[in-house]
Amino acid sequence: EGAGAAPAEERRRLEASACRLASHRVALRARKDAAAREGLLREAGSNGESGPRRRKGRAPGNPEEDEHDALRSLTEARNNMGSTLGHIQEVQKKLDETSETI
């Protein structure tokens, strides 16, 4: 009985640690995303821009380049959301695995 309990207890501790690690990864990613978003908003506010961000040296009013910038921004946002979703799914998987052992 004593020999069988030790590996089970160790496995529970490892699963709990893995779950905490996954949660910390999600929290760290959220902090990084929030800091990046805040930096972009601060930068846009200091430049007085109200539409798509303008690159330095580019004449305003070029709709094709504005559309390209908007597409790039949306693509980046989609990629960030996909990454966040992946982290959430990873945490959910760890939680499900932990719940099964309880």
Write the layout of secondary structure elements.
Layout: H1 2-47, H2 63-101
Helix pairs in contact: 1-2
Describe the protein's architecture and organization.
The structure is a single chain. The protein has about 100 residues and is mostly helical. The protein has one domain (about 1-45, about 75-100). It has two helices and no strands. The protein has helices at about 1-45, 65-100. Helix 1 packs antiparallel against helix 2. The radius of gyration is 22 Å and the shape is elongated. The two termini are about 20 Å apart. The model is unreliable at about 50-55 (pLDDT under 50).
Distance N to C terminus: 18 Å
Low-confidence stretches: 50-54
Shape: elongated
What Rg, in angstroms, do the CA atoms define? 22 Å
Helical residues, percent? over 70%
Percent in strands: under 5%
Question: If helices are DSSP runs of H or I spanning 4 or more residues, what is the number of helices?
Answer: 2
Largest sheet: none
Q: How many domains make up the coordinates?
A: 1
Mean pLDDT: 80
The structure class reads: mainly alpha
